[in-house]
Automatic annotation (TrEMBL):
Function: Component of the general transcription and DNA repair factor IIH (TFIIH) core complex which is involved in general and transcription-coupled nucleotide excision repair (NER) of damaged DNA.
Descriptive protein name: General transcription factor IIH subunit 4
InterPro entries: Tfb2_C (IPR040662), TFIIH_p52/Tfb2 (IPR004598)
Any one Gene Ontology BP term: nucleotide-excision repair
Annotated Transcription factor Tfb2 C-terminal domain residues: 400-467
Organism in which the protein naturally occurs: Dictyostelium purpureum
Source superkingdom: Eukaryota
PANTHER family in UniProt: GENERAL TRANSCRIPTION FACTOR IIH SUBUNIT 4, TFIIH, POLYPEPTIDE 4
Length: 471
């Protein structure tokens, strides 16, 4: 779920509170599809619009897009429905608060959010855009590295978020290990990953607010995020202009790579490309412009692979042979760490890591909750272009063997159950057997021994059934 999907889950009171901030309203308009934007500006200068006329805003051929645009606006409580006594009297209108803020934004287009450092000398070295890109990439890769490497020690803030989002679990020895959801998380694009953790943070913040543990709120943080997305890349902004709560949020966002600060006590903060593009919806082009490490191959230019996880992968780096040997053309420690979840790594060269898929390496991954299908999809998703062009991103023999190794662990299933073997009469046994089957509690029975095994959940209902009918 990304932010604007998340907003549709909030109640009308929360949305009304968010719409008090003009920057939030502008960020939402900026994220909407063109047709939804068109409807907003069509209604901007009128109080109400008859619903019968609104239905004719689109031609029949684009009726689906018309309904989708209206649904999005209704879900976000941007368009409100006025119900009349008859259907022909129904009308729609823009949310008055939202409408007023968009009007103001069109007039005050040069409004300043935070003062930048143009007229104030920053005593620290001012980072350029390339520095900011490299910083955000490094910071976010560290978050992902915590998922793929049990030995890595995340900060308490990141650790709590990963646990709350069920991306990691705490083992008996107190260490964190990746879950099946965590492995799926690693395959998603960077903006989905960031919003996944931010939404967990937002929900935790709201829960603490209701319990009286913090003065901050979910809406405060959302409004702050929307404001930050309007800042200029490469410019520094004064920390002193922020509220105490916003300063706390700033330190948290720094751990995601969304904000750059020389130290927690710095006078200036610098938004990175990630925070500026976080609410624009233009993730693909922006991800592709992030600085990436390129691996130069001296023998074959086809082996040049982008090694950054923060980049939208257009080409993979994995070559897997039928002898289960895997070659990873990458210098990224993060990508090698991901492979180590299900591959026994043998050795590593500057531009190449070599490993082998074994029964034990797959079993280790399965124990951590990673499924065979996820492993196969990961290899296929990250297959080297040469392997893809040859029609074998993953050899069939290897894929089938991985599935067989998973089936080995699933040959026996355990179910908590209750055994009944002291029925007073044969009629009681047969009646109870019929009842257990009808209620889907039945597991096993033996008519000669008058023995019945049922699911643990059926223990109390079956005991009550016997007492009521045969006591």
């Amino acid at each position: 779920m990304k932010v604007f999907q998340y907003l549709t889950t909030l109640d009308a009171r929360d949305l009304e509170d968010l719409y008090k901030d003009s920057w939030t309203c502008q960020a939402i308009v900026r994220s909407l599809p063109p047709r939804a934007k068109q409807y907003i500006f069509k209604m901007l200068m009128v109080d109400t619009y008859p619903l019968t006329i609104a239905k004719d805003w689109s031609q029949h051929s684009s009726n689906h897009q018309h309904k989708e645009a209206l649904k999005k606006l209704f879900d976000l409580k941007i368009i409100l429905l006025n119900r009349g006594k008859q259907q022909s009297e129904q009308s729609i209108q823009l949310n008055p608060l939202f409408q007023e803020n968009i009007k103001s934004a069109l007039v005050e287009f040069d409004k300043v959010i935070f003062s930048n450092s143009s007229n104030i000398k920053d005593t620290n070295k001012i980072p350029n855009i390339n520095d900011l890109d490299n910083y955000s990439k490094k910071q976010w890769e560290q978050v992902l590295y915590f998922l793929s490497d049990d030995a890595a020690q995340p900060s308490k803030f990141i650790s709590d978020l990963l646990l709350s989002s069920n991306l990691t679990r705490r083992d008996q020895d107190g260490s964190l290990s990746i879950t099946s959801d965590g492995f799926k998380f690693l395959l998603k694009d960077v903006y989905t990953q960031i919003w996944t953790l931010l939404i967990v943070y937002l929900n935790d913040l709201e829960k603490k607010r209701r319990e009286g543990l913090t003065q901050g709120s979910r809406n405060d943080l959302l409004g702050f995020l929307f404001r930050l997305s309007f800042l200029q890349l490469g410019k520094g902004y004064l920390v002193g202009e922020l509220t105490e709560l916003q300063k706390e949020y700033l330190i948290c966002l720094k751990q995601f790579g969304l904000i750059y600060m020389k130290s927690d006590a710095s006078l200036f903060f610098y938004p990175t490309r990630l925070i500026i593009s976080l609410t624009t919806g233009k993730t693909l082009s922006l991800i592709q412009t992030l600085a990436v490490d390129k691996i130069n191959s001296s023998s074959n230019s086809a082996n040049t692979v982008a090694s950054s996880t923060i980049e939208k992968k257009e080409s993979g780096y994995i070559v897997l042979e039928t002898n289960y040997r895997l070659y990873a053309y990458t210098a990224s420690s993060l990508q090698i760490s991901l492979l180590s979840l299900f591959v026994k790594m043998l050795y590593r060269l500057p531009n190449l890591a070599v490993g082998i898929i074994t029964r034990e390496s797959i079993r280790t991954a399965l124990i951590h909750g990673i499924t065979a299908d996820q492993i196969i999809d990961f290899i296929r998703h990250n297959a080297h272009p040469n392997a893809v062009n040859n029609g074998q991103p993953i050899p069939d023999v290897v894929a089938e063997q991985i599935l067989l190794w998973e089936q080995e662990r699933n040959r026996i299933t355990y179910t908590k159950s209750v055994l009944y073997n002291s029925f007073p009469t044969t009629d009681c046994y047969h009646a109870t057997l019929k009842f257990a089957k009808e209620q889907d509690y039945y597991i096993w029975s033996n008519d000669q021994l008058k023995t019945l095994v049922v699911n643990e959940n059926g223990n109390d209902p079956i005991r009550n059934f016997i007492k009521k009918n045969f006591a």
